[in-house]
Amino acid sequence: MRLLATLVLLLLLRSAEPRRGPRSGAVEGGAGGRVRGRGRAGVMRRQTPECKEYVEAGDKYLDCQDRQLTTVMQDWPKDIHHLLLARNKIQVLRDNMFSQFTQLKSLDLQQNHISMVEDGAFTGLSKLRTLLLQHNRLKTATEEVLLPLTRLTYLRLYDNPWSCRCSLDSLVRTLQVPSNRNLGNYGKCAEPQTLSGLKLRKLNVDLLCADDSQVDRWPGGGDRGQPKPPPIKVKTEATSMCHTYMFPKPLLDCSNKDLNNIPSELPSDIVKMDLSKNTIKHLRPKQFLLSKDLKLLNLSSNSLHHLDTAAFAGLLYLRELDLSNNSLPYFEYGVLEDLYFLRKLSLENNPWVCDYNIHYLIYWLKHHPGVFYTGLFCSEPQEFRGWRVEDYVKTYNGECPIDKQTGGIGTGQEGQGGAENDAQEGAGETDEMQGDHLPQPLQQIKSKRFEIIRLS
């Protein structure tokens, strides 16, 4: 029996050895798994690259846009002045979430999934001046959120589904303080239906804490002078249609938004404006009049076929204008007269018609030699297709003898585009010329005979 027990024990021990082997291997595999896990983590880090840190005009920027982030990382530098977190997946702003960034001047949180902001989310940001929360999912917030931001001067809240009920009362009252003129300018109510589309800054705050059913029953929106909006979709403004980026330069991005007109209520502090890849056909007078700081305007890849004379009125400081890939045949006289400091003009891929109407554009470019322009080639008529417009204009004027171009009159503008064009018009009116090629009016003066009648 003792021998049998010994044999059974040996068999059991031998059968247990393969199991110990895999378990030992499992430990090794586990270690390998952890190594592989670290490798996978490394892959995730490569898919979510590190934020870009840079310095501009003495301020430190941390660009963490498009990083799929859901929160703020604790290992980020604490001395940054501008934190860019647009287009991530942050859903909730927790208390003290940014408290370590005590030097922050601006915080860009637009285009996230933010649906809640805790009252202490911005604690410690006493130097913050710009806060961008547009294009999120916020329905409500309180005045407490803004209390730590003692220097806040610029707040964007639009394109959030604000629920204009009693819980929003303190925030709306804060926004409506006259000194807070740049806080929440374009934010609008999404509900209740009777207040939908009304701006937070212009809303009658007495309606916020009224019973919702009572508000809905008020004819015309109530007896307090608050009009009830019609049950139709409210037309959105530029700030609701487009995306606004404040850093490094204020940019209004309205590209590829299926726009057929210039949006209304363009912000006045925008430096760059991108309206490309839309279906805008016509620029009307003074549509950019309030955009006095605009330096770059991109209108490429639209359907533009006509620019009114005052289309660019007010754009005194515009440096770059892109009109490429449109349907422009020529410029109306005076269209470019407001662009005193233009330096770059992109004109390629337009059907430029080489006739008398194109002369204004060449005349303007001739008198603004500091403007670099591209893409000015004749599309019509057939005989000039592919010509440089400048060459066409030279040929057009070259058909006239020099005497006819100057008209033989000392205007002091010989050689200028306007004098050449005027001379050509005069030549067009000439029916018959003498051998000396003088214009007809001068011929008449030269050939006219005077009869002297002596009175007795």
What is the fold's blueprint, element by element?
Layout: H1 2-47, E1 52-56, E2 59-63, E3 82-84, E4 92-93, E5 106-108, E6 116-117, E7 130-132, E8 154-156, E9 162-163, H2 169-175, E10 189-191, H3 212-217, H4 238-241, E11 243-245, E12 251-253, E13 272-274, E14 282-283, E15 296-298, E16 306-307, E17 320-322, E18 344-346, E19 352-353, H5 359-366, E20 372-374, E21 378-380, H6 389-398, H7 402-406, H8 417-428, H9 440-447
Parallel strand pairs: 2-3, 3-5, 4-6, 5-7, 7-8, 9-10, 12-13, 13-15, 14-16, 15-17, 17-18, 18-20, 19-21
Antiparallel strand pairs: 1-2, 11-12
Keywords: Leucine-rich repeat, Repeat, Signal
Region (Disordered): 20-43, 404-445
Biased composition (Gly residues): 407-418
Which fold name corresponds to the CATH topology of the largest domain? Leucine-rich repeat, LRR (right-handed beta-alpha superhelix)
Main beta sheet: 7 strands, mixed
Helix content percent band: 10-25%
As laid out across the biggest beta sheet, the strand order is 11-12-13-15-17-18-20
**What is the H level of CATH, i.e. the homologous superfamily of the largest domain?**
Ribonuclease Inhibitor
Structural class: alpha/beta
Number of separate domains:
2
Order of helices and strands: HEEEEEEEEEHEHHEEEEEEEEEHEEHHHH
> Please, what is the average pLDDT?
77
Percent of residues in beta strands? 5-15%
Overall, the morphology is extended
Instruction: Using the coordinates above, name the CATH class of the largest domain.
Output: Alpha Beta
Taking all Cα atoms into account, the compactness measure Rg is 36 Å
CATH architecture of the largest domain: Alpha-Beta Horseshoe
Distance between the termini: 177 Å
Give the number of helices. Answer: 9
Uncertain segments = 18-48, 212-236, 403-448
Signal peptide: 1-18
Pfam families: LRR_8
Biased composition (Gly residues): 407-418
InterPro entries: Cys-rich_flank_reg_C, Leu-rich_rpt, Leu-rich_rpt_typical-subtyp, LRR_dom_sf, LRR_TM_domain-containing
